[in-house]
From TrEMBL:
Cross-referenced Pfam families: BPD_transp_1 (PF00528)
Single GO BP term: transmembrane transport
Family, per entry: Belongs to the binding-protein-dependent transport system permease family.
Principal cellular location given in the protein's record: membrane
Keyword tags: Cell membrane, Membrane, Transmembrane, Transmembrane helix, Transport
GO cellular component: plasma membrane
PANTHER family registered for this protein in UniProt: BLR7065 PROTEIN (PTHR43005), SPERMIDINE_PUTRESCINE TRANSPORT SYSTEM PERMEASE PROTEIN (PTHR43005:SF1)
PROSITE patterns the record matches: ABC_TM1
Subcellular location: Cell membrane
InterPro entries: MetI-like (IPR000515), MetI-like_sf (IPR035906)
Protein name per the record: Sugar ABC transporter permease
Length: 323
């Protein structure tokens, strides 16, 4: 009887030790998996912290300090709170830059999207040389912005620019017309160039979205007697709605911070006629050496972009739930 009890106790103890060992091995295995995941995430975290986190923190820090050329030389700054933001708001250039930024963004996004959508629908049909033409349309998007801006600056040149030569030859504009130094026309010119640059991006994203729409929907609509326009309105547009949201959001964020093209073509002139938030931030920082105000203006651009991104995420979540 005693031997039987001892045997059962030994077996129970052995089972307990075995379960404890298995639990420990599972815990060690789980810790190894977590550690491996952290190791893979570490380069990304370091990259984001170095190239995004630190510059953002430094920009916010400068915007809250009285940081100018003297501070840059001496290394001594003083806390200014929201004084730089208030100085930007009360600057006469603020209203001009805000209006130009709004007009530049809206007048660029809408034509880019409409033309890009039209080209995406056009290239969704198979025809000879369609791939070659798609590649040619994408080329402007692949060029560095400085290169594109320099090319267009030559095209708009009043002395020997191709645009001036063609249009003056057709008697549409006076000879040697100053496109980039005439108020009104300078602003129209940078909008035209930005539209040209943004069309390939819109076309590529929308074309990819069109490829995901099942052809069965179009075939069923055709059998029911739907016209091409009805198929576009009631099939293409609703199915493309998520892609359209992404395109418009990214287009807004990209356009509101455009600097390269404007600076190469006009540098914000003439007489602030093409001054936007991005170029004004640069002028405040590196033209007037008011680094605190320039950082504050750059942070305003970031804040506007974040608001648009949050609005898009909420809209996307709502539209997904409604479906």
């Amino acid at each position: 009887m005693l031997s039987t009890q001892k045997t059962s106790v030994v077996r129970a103890g052995a089972g307990e030790r075995k379960r404890s060992l298995l639990t420990r091995l599972r815990r060690i295995r789980y810790m190894r998996i977590v550690f491996a995941r952290l190791i893979f995430l570490l380069p990304l975290v370091v990259y984001l912290a170095t190239f995004y986190g630190y510059p953002l923190f430094y920009s916010i820090q400068i915007s809250l300090e009285k940081y100018d050329l003297q501070s840059e030389i001496t290394g001594v700054t003083s806390f200014a709170g929201l004084a730089n933001y208030m100085a930007d708001f009360h600057d006469p250039t603020f209203k001009t830059a805000a209006l130009h930024t709004l007009l530049f963004t809206m007048l660029s996004i809408v034509p880019q999207f409409l033309i890009g959508l039209a080209l995406a629908v056009f290239f969704s049909r198979r025809f000879p040389l369609s791939r070659t033409l798609r590649v040619l349309f994408i080329l402007p998007w692949l060029l560095p912005l400085i290169v594109s801006g320099t090319i267009w600056k030559w095209l708009f040149n009043e002395a020997n620019g191709l645009i001036d030569l063609v249009l003056s030859g057709l008697h549409l504009v006076p000879a040697h017309f100053s496109w980039l130094t005439t108020p009104g026309w300078a602003f129209a010119s940078i909008i035209f160039v930005n539209i040209w640059l943004g069309i390939p991006f819109n076309m590529v994203i929308l074309y990819s979205g069109l490829q995901t729409i099942p052809q069965e929907f179009y075939e069923a609509a055709s059998i029911d007697g739907a016209s091409s326009w009805q198929r576009f309105l009631y099939i293409t547009i609703p199915m493309l709605e998520p892609v359209i949201g992404i395109v418009l959001m990214l287009g807004f964020i990209y356009t509101i911070k455009v600097f390269d093209i404007i600076y190469v073509l006009t540098q914000g002139g003439p007489a602030n006629d093409t001054q936007t938030f991005a170029t004004w931030s640069y002028n405040l920082s590196f033209g007037q050496q008011l680094f605190g105000q320039g950082a504050a203006q750059a942070n305003m651009i970031l804040l506007i972009s974040l608001v648009v991104a949050v609005f898009y995420l909420r809209w996307s979540r709502y539209s997904t739930r409604s479906i």
